Amino acid sequence: MTETHGRMTIAPGPTPGVLTLGGAIDETADLHLLPKRASSGRLSLDLAGVNFINSLGVRDWIRMQAAATEAGLDVELARVSEPLVHQLNMIVATRGSSRVTSFYAPYACDACGREESVLIDAVAYNDQLVRLEPPPAKCPECSAQMAFNDFPERYFSFLSG
Ligand SMILES: [Zn+2]
């Protein structure tokens, strides 16, 4: 059953310790409750649906990460949305000791003009990403090769460091 915490939703995943977050993260999101939902020392957050985080949400996110580190939890961040990738890049403390296994990145098609948020497998493409080389992506509209639409040294910086 999906719970609502302020403007954020939490839906339980297929197995214990897996949660799908959605909506906006602010000071009413009760992020401090998340580490308590870990199972066997593992917490996996699906973040594809998180479309906004404000500065108080970032503060609580950092506290949540610190509490998870303190508790020795293995935190996986999966399908991290672009607004959250920007925070991971700007504020090192938002990364805590978590692992990002996949994330969204902006691509654009030069052939037809389509812009697309593309899901990148951070594990499979790890070597390429730490060299700041965007993985290839095909345009869903016209099948041409799309171009990465940000600065790799900025957008992928959360993966190295
Ligand atoms: Zn295209």
Beta fraction of the residues? 25-35%
CATH superfamily of the largest domain: STAS domain
Task: Supply the helix-strand structural class.
Answer: alpha/beta
What are the low-pLDDT stretches, counting only 5+ consecutive residues below 50?
none
Instruction: Give the strand tally.
Output: 9
Q: Please tell me how large the radius of gyration is.
A: 16 Å
CATH topology of the largest domain: Transcription Regulator spoIIAA
What sort of overall outline do the alpha carbons produce when their principal axes are compared? globular
Q: Report how far apart the termini are.
A: 37 Å
Give the bound compounds.
zinc ion
Number of domains: 2
The average pLDDT value, as a whole number, equals 97
Largest sheet: 6 strands, mixed
CATH class identity of the largest domain: Alpha Beta
- Major sheet: order of its strands? 1-2-3-4-5-6
Any idea what the CATH architecture of the largest domain is? 2-Layer Sandwich
Distinct helical segment count: 4
Order of helices and strands: EEEEHEHEEEHEH
Characterization of the model:
By secondary structure, the chain is α/β, with parallel strands linked by helices. The chain folds into 2 domains: 1-100, Transcription Regulator spoIIAA (2-Layer Sandwich), CATH 3.30.750; 106-151, no CATH class. The chain is 21% helix and 32% strand. It is built from 4 helices and 9 strands; from the N terminus they run ββββαβαβββαβα. The protein has helices spanning 55-70, 82-90, 126-130, 152-155; strands at 3-5, 8-12, 18-25, 42-53, 74-78, 99-100, 102-108, 115-121, 147-148. The strands form 2 sheets. The chain has a 6-stranded mixed β-sheet. The longest helix has 16 residues, at 55-70. The termini are far apart. The mean pLDDT is 97. The structure holds zinc ion. Zinc ion binds at residues 109, 111-112, 114, 139, 141-142, 144.
